[in-house]
Automatic annotation (TrEMBL):
It comes from Iris pallida. GO terms for biological process: proteolysis involved in protein catabolic process. One of its GO terms (cellular component) is proteasome core complex, beta-subunit complex. Keywords: Cytoplasm, Nucleus, Proteasome. Pfam families: Proteasome (PF00227). Coiled coil: none annotated. It is found in: Cytoplasm; Nucleus. Residues 1-21 are annotated as: Disordered. This is Proteasome subunit beta. Non-catalytic component of the proteasome. SUPFAM superfamilies: N-terminal nucleophile aminohydrolases (Ntn hydrolases). Belongs to the peptidase T1B family. InterPro entries: Ntn_hydrolases_N, Proteasome_alpha, Proteasome_beta4, Proteasome_bsu_CS, Proteasome_sua/b, Proteasome_suB-type.
Length: 247
């Protein structure tokens, strides 16, 4: 028996394949970290880095975790990358089915968010969850929309949302500094401040980010870029500075 194969794939000696059992994803393999989204004056803006961690190792550095969904929505995901790809396949089928009606209407961000809520909750009830936290934002008919849903179907709407460590490190900054009338330039500056905090404090974050925006005019996703960082803190140069006592 080949010990490196999945036992369910091993063919018995009589040549008859045993019926496959039910399999579940017990834990994620390749994951992405925080996604941050917020409303601003003209629409919705979203940011995430492009890192993919294999366990505690940042193995992939070009994983795009923000995608355009239909005409009116942006989707960002943290968590298992392959499950995110599965969700994108679901959404491709949904958008295609909607377009086939050819009735002049198209799914808005609220409808897509409701669909994702049902998908995540359904998979959770089957004890086969999709290991993701999703941020869904968009603009339709002048109405801005921003919401999130996690792997067990918990969901809400807000003026700013975040997943992963962003919930703990970025949202306090957003609560203090977010305004409804932020210009695009101010919104980018605020997002970059949050991303820099995450870069310093989240071991899964990398200094390679994408920022996406969606307005009535359409969607724009930036090419990956880096932020200027500073690591010359005295504590790194001499960790005993300010320490009391001795070991």
């Amino acid at each position: 028996m080949d010990l490196y194969r999945n036992p369910s794939e091993v063919v018995p000696s009589n040549g008859v394949q045993a019926p496959e059992g039910s399999e579940r994803t017990l834990y994620p393999y390749v994951t992405g970290t925080s996604v941050i989204g917020m409303k601003y004056k003209d629409g919705v803006i979203m940011a995430a880095d492009t890192g993919g961690s294999y366990g505690s190792t940042i193995r992939y550095k070009g994983v795009e975790r923000i995608k355009t969904i239909g005409k009116h929505s942006l989707l960002g995901a943290s968590g298992e990358i392959s499950d995110f790809q599965e969700i994108l396949r679901y959404l491709d089928e949904l958008i295609l089915y909607d377009n086939m009606w050819d009735d002049g209407n198209s799914l808005g961000p609220k409808e897509v968010h409701n669909y994702l809520n049902r998908v995540m909750y359904n998979r959770r009830n089957k004890f086969n969850p999709l290991w993701n936290s999703l941020v869904l934002g968009g603009v339709k008919n002048g109405q801005k929309y921003l919401g999130m849903v996690n792997m067990i179907g918990t969901h809400f709407e807000d003026n700013h949302v975040a997943t992963g460590f962003g919930n703990h490190l970025a949202r306090p900054i957003l609560r203090a500094e977010w305004r409804e009338d932020l210009t695009y330039e101010e919104a980018v500056k605020l997002l970059e401040k949050c991303l820099l905090v995450l870069l310093y404090r989240d071991r899964s974050a990398i200094n390679k980010f994408q920022i996406a925006k969606i307005t009535e005019e359409g969607t724009t996703i930036s090419k990956p870029y880096s932020l200027k960082t500073f690591w010359g803190f005295s504590a790194f140069q001499n960790p005993t500075v300010g320490a009391e006592g001795s070991w």
